Amino acid sequence: MSTYCTAVSEALAALEESVIEDFRKTLRERHNTLAEPLMWEECRRQARAIIDDIVQSLRQAWDHPDDKAIDLSTDVGTHRAEQGVNPAVSIQACTALFDVALPYIRKAIAAAPAEQAEDFLAVALHTFNRSVGHRVEAALRAYHSFLLQQAGEANCEMRRGMARDIHDHVGNSLATAMRCLEIAEAEAEAEAVASAEAEAVTSGEADPTADGSAADPSKDPSKDPSKTVDRRESPASRRLHAAYDAVQDALGYTRTLVRGLRLRIPDTGIESSLRDFMDSAAPESTRFEILVTGDEEWVGTELRYELFIALRECLRNALAHAEAGAVTVELDIAPHEISAEVRDDGTGFDVWAVAAADSAGGGLASVRERVRLMNGTVSWLSSPAEGTRVVFRVPNLRKELGKDLRKDGHKDVRKDGRKAQAAV
Ligand SMILES: Nc1ncnc2c1ncn2[C@@H]1O[C@H](COP(=O)(O)OP(=O)(O)OP(=O)(O)O)[C@@H](O)[C@H]1O
Ligand SMILES: [Mg+2]
Question: What is the pTM assigned to this prediction?
């Protein structure tokens, strides 16, 4: 086969322009939006790169899509998401490219003897399949990641809006109500003092032994109306005070709610937030380790937040249900994927039974839903003898950081996990 490699690959390279021209024509005939001027340039680059991959493979110089292919596909996926182009349109374009390219590939292969044609065709089709497959995968990841980020931002914006509304409307009204109650209480108190004074004056006048001293509070403190009037004694005052306490509670709760809605993962990141959580929530009898490989800077803010919430729920469960002696979190962050595991050596549980039970809490379901939104997977592996492992895999997409990483080589920034003090 090798004698004809160069001839066949050069023949295909020479046909490349025609393939691209026909490809655009076919896209137009099939009313595919990627043929439109704004979309075409990127689509053309992808198609050309796929044909180039086939040319290289026929020359036996192609193994798998390189970084350039992944970067280009990532850009394409992001742009298509920005432009609101459905991924189905890209898949249809791949089909069109295959339909168009196949006759040209056959034509190029005709440069080789008939008995070798099948081998060349197999190589070309295999390459087409792999090149397109990898590019589509990278583009879809980027597409999904863009939507996820947008959903995260919308979610964040919505929470900020709710926090604002609760603060500005509910909080403000409650504060006003509290102020009114304070005033009403003060007025009721003043009124009670005044009427007690009036009563004292009346009873002083009526006192036959009065020499004035009985009505003088400085002489008999027990007769000082401001001291003897207990505003709680009057039912109206009591009710006012109860209302004041209730409004104060509601105001406190509103503040907590607003803070919660505004809560983002602290700038310090997943690792230290988990550490803070364990420091405050883990009993002294539980050792814990948090091991991080990679750099959190490679994870977008929204993803970081979602991950933190999901991992924290697993830790919460380990602390609440497992009676574990040791709990470990391992987090491995790579530019294209994040994997994590939360392990405990506790009692374990029957995962299937819990999943099937109506009475189950919301924690596992919420972790599952969050991970699904991140386009990842999560599984619980648990047995009474071995405790519980929760294993996460979530796609990450930080291509610009990925590029830096490829330049620098993979930095291992594993940090030593700290053991809780007084661990037993
Ligand atoms: N690490 C674990 N070790 C032992 N049992 C666990 C563990 N994680 C979960 N479970 C079991 O799974 C059940 C469901 O957990 P889930 O988080 O859904 O609810 P919950 O923790 O009971 O309540 P919530 O999270 O709503 O406060 C728990 O009640 C517990 O029985
Ligand atoms: Mg729980």
Answer: 0.52
